[in-house]
Amino acid sequence: MRLKVCGMKYQDNIEQVAALQPDYLGFIFYEKSARNFDTESIPELPKSIKKTGVFVDADIDIVIKLVNKHNLQAVQLHGKESPEYCDDLKNRHAELVSASHNLEIIKVFSIKDEFDFSILKPYENTCNYFLFDTKGKHPGGNGYTFNWNVLNNYPSTKPFFLSGGLGLNEVEKINQFVNSKASKYCYALDVNSKFEIEPGLKDIEDLKTFKKNLSSILDNNKEIVMNYNVDEKGYYGEFGGAFIPEMLYPNVEELRQNYLKVMAEPEFKKEFDQLLKDYVGRPSPLYFAKRLSEKYNTKIYLKREDLNHTGAHKINNTIGQILMAKRLGKTRIIAETGAGQHGVATATVCALMGLECIVYMGEIDIARQAPNVARMKMLGATVVPALSGSRTLKDATNEAIRDWINNPVNTHYIIGSAIGPHPYPDMVTRFQAVISEEIKWQLKEQEGRKNPDYVVACIGGGSNAAGTYYHYLHEPDVGIIAVEAAGLGIDSGESAATSVLGKEGIIHGCKTLLMQTKDGQITEPYSISAGLDYPGVGPMHAHLSKTGRAEFMSITDSDAMEAGLELSKLEGIIPAIETSHALAIFGQREFKEDDVVVVSLSGRGDKDLENYIDYFKI
Amino acid sequence: MNRINQKLQENKKLLSIYFTAGYPNINDTVSIIQNLEKNGVDMIEIGLPFSDPLADGPTIQDSSTKALKNGMTTEVLFDQLKDIRKTVNIPLIIMGYFNPMFQYGVEAFCKKCQELGIDGLIIPDLPVDVYHQEYQAIFEKYGLINVFLITPQTSDERIRYIDSISNGFIYMVSSASTTGAQSGFGEEQTAYFERIAKMNLKNQQIIGFGISNNETFTQATQYAKGAIIGSAFVKHMTKHGADGTGTFVKTIQN
Description:
heterodimer, A: TIM Barrel, six-stranded mixed beta sheet, B: 254 residues, alpha/beta, TIM Barrel, nine-stranded parallel beta sheet, globular, amino-acid biosynthesis (chain B), EC 4.2.1.20 (chain B), Trp_synthase_alpha_AS (chain B)
């Protein structure tokens, strides 16, 4: 069962309550309330806590304005708001380009000794939750409980919040309630006035005691509702963390302490959005691939990340990270690259910002990706060959990390995928999340709905995938398909299908699935595509694999190459070989005729021409 | 009492040597250890090679790659060490990255270390907080000392935290670098050495990274209980093989 603490008012008190990790914190925006939240801003909260705005018959414009201003994840409607009002609010919010998440709507109903549940019906579609409060003089905060037996007749399956007069004296009663039928759809407990020293000021000790006394109940349901995002310790389920040598601790810790704060700064957001628009060319189109759809008898949309400046999704992240580096006062940028796409994207933003750029690249990759090496050099970057180990991406990453160890003060390391020690996987994911943010409104325009049936992306480390999935992770009606490179075949010994061949372990600073010997030595993957040729996956994807949230598929070199050629011929788009892996699933897996399948077209194929030429003897 | 703690009580500056197990040859492990003890080395770090040693420079990375090619594995190393306590008395520490230990099973690994007479572990990529929360009880159960690193960038507050978790010595990384990168110490290092010496930590410190000869050894041990030499010894092995151990140690001691 979840916990909501409502009626927060004072900054220090908010932080103290947040430290107890409730699931929701409520802020009342109602002038007549003694707990009216009239402060300019809400302090930075752990992302696991949903900020909830409480309104009483407020104008929708005002609600929307406050939702945006405070980045509220939920609104609780305490007045006589109609079902139409709720619909209108939800739609207005969804239309906002900046709406990066679904707004949860919690509609409140007050109960004393009886209640006509039939009035709930028209609210069922729009509202995410109901909240049952005690009927009294005020809209909420009356300080006594209602007759919970009324809920025995609850006819709905909509989860609800139990509210009204919950305090330490009610612990026993709550325990009984939880064991009764009436609590079947009870989702959360909502507390307020019984934990106050004065209106709006919460008693931390009492809250702690309450949480402790109800820990078996409060901890229990947490496991039922799966979180696919990073938690406050930097883990996705059991994966993630920061397994770094002490030499890197100050750098990574500096980033960890600052990244969310910096990303939330309006100035930062403005600059990021502006550059994505004017420099990268976003939004990237969401293109309905008609001929491809006809061929596979389903509705295929391509998210055209290949049309970004530099030809792939990689630049979304490098723009974000270079702005981050500047905010942190760094003057020197390092990066690793495999195929050279991330190296080019990093060299590009360094040129844009006038910062020194050093790119580590495996000696073997330098030889097979000459055009990208030339691009980086033209952009002013120094390309340093990684001569150790297998002399490919994994070793380039090692070298970049070593550089960072040797230059801890002035250097920022722009990791190119959703990998590495926390906070990198989350930071990279958030910068790439623009992909699914756009898909939502673009699909709404074209299909009348924001959620496709499937989102599909190829996975090396998994940054384009993370961005493509991000806003759909907690939308159960959206299937997630992750496509790995099978190389010459899963059992061939020449593969990069980490979810099949990998085992839990530690690589480049995080715990994730990785390909290794039984002694824990990291092995060399193989794929025809340099961008998928990585022995691990990002920790988020390891979690998606382990929990079964995502369906993992692996595609061989030859199937990928054929799919690349097919897209070229059917749609006039030559995809990167990485992307071709994602496209190859249509030959291997059935979709329904009316399924809407969005594929991240992560990069364009110019860089792979030589490979295509060799393969098809063009 | 753990051999490391006993050694730390001796009234002398300690010389500790790191070598990569399985290098230059797969079966050099025991003879290198015996030669080091015979030549007066106080403590030994046996490097368990790893494919991706992030904190190491080219010398140790190369020796690790070759050792793995030679066939070194966790099992092989444990097998080589099975009778080591019949002939060797000085403290022995295994230094390696976390993934091979994690795959072996942390508890099984620790148990085996205790059986073999290993006194401690140095695991550069196992962060102190993860150790503290998840593994400390296991290490203690098997009488192993875990050694943590600090660097010039480590804050005083964090050094105090590391000191509170440590029960042997603190490994002071001499400068912001990977292994084998430095030659000699400048003012910045000596200022750092002095700063740490003044903190009066519960655990004594041993300085590593950048110690390669008598001069740097003497400099470092002015401020700390001892010093660790790794890359310079590995380089010497490359040239002279396991038999060259004695000549190397003599150049440091003189």
